[in-house]
């Protein structure tokens, strides 16, 4: 059984739009993953379907109420499946590829609580949430994009979702490095030529060139991630040649 996602949001259409296209649409059709989207307003009890209210203590904006979220989580969990309940917020652990791989490996269903407004009543964090995740140090209008980023980056790791499983093995962060440069036809465009080695058909030389480019690019742009990279002795030689 593959990983599954439940999503609590006041904007279900955001998910239907993104998950209704391309690779993820096909993956859902092939049941390589499962995503259920719940409209938080369906778990309110008043005729206005209220999900937010004014903040105690005053201040700008509105705060998401705990009762609808509690009702939604309680109803979703009634199927008895074990879930990791994740709240998306800028105060969470910064998301990365290692977390994507870990969540996939755990295969535990993930329930996303997507915030809106100024934020969510703190008692949700205290009594319902297992983990808080942020996709970066910036503030969005809602947590929906964060949930989609996590779903997308995990789904593409599921065998059979991408056409070519090889691409996962050699991409940014899988080596623990930034990606190498990619080229396709034409071989020359406005005087810019494709590196000869890529036209040589020599797979060993092409691999070495790509590895060198990935190391060089990582050194230039993100030297801090080198310390966690899975470097071979040959890589160490390249680093020395690159002056490190
Ligand atoms: N960065 C992030 N990573 O995950 N979520 C966010 C994020 O900005 N959330 C918004 C904050 C207020 C609003 O409720 C939703």
UniProtKB/TrEMBL annotation:
Gene3D superfamilies with a match to the protein in the record: 3.40.1280.10, tRNA(m1g37)methyltransferase, domain 2 (1.10.1270.20)
Entry annotated with the keyword Transferase: yes
Subunit structure: Homodimer.
Keywords: Cytoplasm, Methyltransferase, S-adenosyl-L-methionine, Transferase, tRNA processing
Originating species: Dissulfurispira thermophila
An example Gene Ontology biological process: tRNA N1-guanine methylation
Domain tRNA methyltransferase TRMD/TRM10-type positions: 5-227
Listed NCBIfam families: PRK00026.1, trmD
Protein name: tRNA (guanine-N(1)-)-methyltransferase
GO CC term (a single one): cytosol
Reaction equation(s) it catalyzes: guanosine(37) in tRNA + S-adenosyl-L-methionine = N(1)-methylguanosine(37) in tRNA + S-adenosyl-L-homocysteine + H(+)
HAMAP family assigned: TrmD
Xref: InterPro entries: Alpha/beta_knot_MTases, tRNA_m1G_MeTrfase_C_sf, tRNA_m1G_MeTrfase_TrmD, tRNA_m1G_MTases_N, tRNA_MeTrfase_TRMD/TRM10
Job description of the protein: Specifically methylates guanosine-37 in various tRNAs.
SUPFAM superfamilies (UniProt xref): alpha/beta knot
Entry similarity comment: Belongs to the RNA methyltransferase TrmD family.
Positions with a binding annotation for S-adenosyl-L-methionine: 115, 135-140
EC number: 2.1.1.228
Molecular functions (GO terms): tRNA (guanine(37)-N1)-methyltransferase activity
Enzyme class name: transferase
Compartments (UniProt record): Cytoplasm
CDD domains assigned to the protein according to its UniProt record, in alphabetical order: TrmD-like
């Amino acid at each position: 059984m593959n990983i599954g996602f439940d999503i609590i949001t006041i904007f279900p259409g955001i998910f239907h739009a993104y998950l209704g296209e391309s690779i993820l649409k096909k993956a859902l059709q092939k049941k390589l993953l499962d995503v259920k989207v719940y409209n938080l307003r369906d778990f309110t009890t008043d005729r206005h379907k209220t999900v937010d209210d004014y903040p105690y203590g005053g201040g700008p904006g509105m705060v998401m109420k705990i009762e609808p979220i509690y009702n939604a989580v309680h109803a979703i969990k009634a199927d008895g499946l074990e879930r990791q309940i994740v709240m998306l917020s800028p105060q969470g652990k910064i998301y990365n590829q290692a977390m994507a791989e870990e969540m996939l490996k755990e295969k535990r269903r993930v329930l996303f609580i997507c915030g809106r407004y100024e934020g969510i009543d703190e008692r949700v964090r205290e009594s319902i949430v297992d983990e808080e995740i942020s996709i970066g140090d910036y503030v969005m209008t809602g947590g929906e994009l964060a949930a989609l980023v996590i779903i997308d980056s995990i789904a593409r790791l599921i065998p059979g979702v991408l056409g070519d499983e090889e691409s996962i093995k050699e991409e940014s962060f899988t080596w623990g490095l930034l990606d190498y440069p990619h080229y396709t036809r034409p071989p020359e465009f406005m005087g810019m030529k494709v590196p000869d080695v890529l036209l040589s058909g020599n797979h060993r030389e092409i691999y070495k060139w790509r590895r060198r480019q990935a190391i060089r690019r990582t050194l230039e742009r993100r030297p801090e991630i080198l310390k966690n990279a899975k470097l071979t002795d040959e890589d160490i030689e390249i680093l020395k040649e690159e002056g490190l």
